[in-house]
Specification:
single chain, about 300 residues, alpha+beta, Beta-lactamase, eight-stranded antiparallel beta sheet, three-stranded antiparallel beta sheet, globular
């Protein structure tokens, strides 16, 4: 699982720590342009898979304006616009936040997290859960059991995952929010997101375009996926817990990465370096390490 070193943390001109992991970069035609570690290892995609989950919901009849559809794909910051959006989705079937079965949490937004109490609405996956509930309502499926792996919705999502990735799911467990979580390879994730990006299926295009059009709903102001989609024309990006990130360009060029120790601090640097493989400058400011309140080193990619 260790993979190869993807990033170094320096202090005083010396390497203090390293972050190893796996990375696969695909050309527009789907062939592998570059890789580190072993992207064929089975792993959990975490929230980087939300666009595929949303696609299954849309295919099952979910109809939302793009701003709210982007929220269904989100790991949002829990700000007012995100919580209000989740409430709007639930209101379409006459329900409120009490119907959510995601865990209670404080907002990811740092300022709000310090002053807020945990709620299900503030939890970063509440948009996805609201979308799941509305999809169940539209189809007459049970809402009480919408998180069960054998529920019709979760079966539809599993089919979408396997179809898009071209792989079989090797294990199903529970994500941090309580929804089913599927294990398959990082390469399969990259191929799924590439397929989503270049697909002519109106379902897939509606999901991708919603995220590109409303990147602030997918994550939040100043956060990685939002700022990169705002700064790079046509980019689709979705990060996930435990050091996972995936991004794709309109022509099908795609990458997926996993930091093996699950630490997200190296993800921005590795992401920017992966984009450089495509010749794209992400305009990311190199993150510093500090000593005595002053910069004494950096977090940098090794490739």
């Amino acid at each position: 699982m260790l993979g190869e070193v993807l990033a170094e943390v320096t202090r005083g001109g010396e390497v203090e720590s390293i972050h190893a992991g796996h990375l696969v970069v695909l050309n527009a035609d789907g062939s592998i342009a570059f890789q580190k570690g072993d992207p064929t290892l089975a792993m959990y995609s975490r929230s980087s898979l939300k666009s595929i989950q949303a696609s299954a919901m849309v295919r099952a009849g979910l109809k939302l304006e793009p701003k709210l559809l982007a929220l269904v794909c989100a790991s949002h910051a829990g700000t007012h616009i995100h919580q209000l959006g989740a409430q709007e989705i639930l209101a379409k079937c006459g329900l409120d936040e009490n119907s959510l079965q995601c865990v209670m949490d404080r907002p990811l937004d740092e300022e709000l997290r310090r002053v807020s109490q945990p709620t299900r609405l503030a939890m970063n996956c509440s948009g996805k859960h609201a979308g799941m509930i509305l999809t169940c309502h539209i189809n007459g499926w049970s809402i009480d059991s919408y998180l069960h792996p054998e529920h019709p919705l979760q079966k539809a999502i599993a089919i979408e995952v396997e179809t898009m990735s071209g792989e079989s799911i090797v294990n199903t467990t529970v994500d941090g929010c309580g929804a089913p979580l599927f294990m398959f390879s990082l390469l399969g994730l990259a191929r799924a997101i590439r397929s989503l990006t270049i697909s002519t299926d109106s379902v897939h295009q509606s999901v991708v375009q919603a995220c590109r059009e409303f990147p602030e709903m997918v994550s939040g102001s100043g956060r990685l996926a939002t700022r990169m989609m705002q700064n790079i024309d046509g980019l689709f990006m979705k990060d996930g817990a435990e050091g996972v990130n995936v991004a794709s360009l309109p022509d099908g060029r795609t990458f997926a990465l996993k930091i093996s120790d699950g630490n997200a601090r190296a993800v921005p640097a590795v992401t920017a370096a992966a984009l450089k493989v495509f010749g794209i400058d992400a305009h990311e400011v190199e993150e510093n390490t500090f000593g005595g309140g002053k910069p004494v080193g950096t977090i940098r990619a090794t490739f």
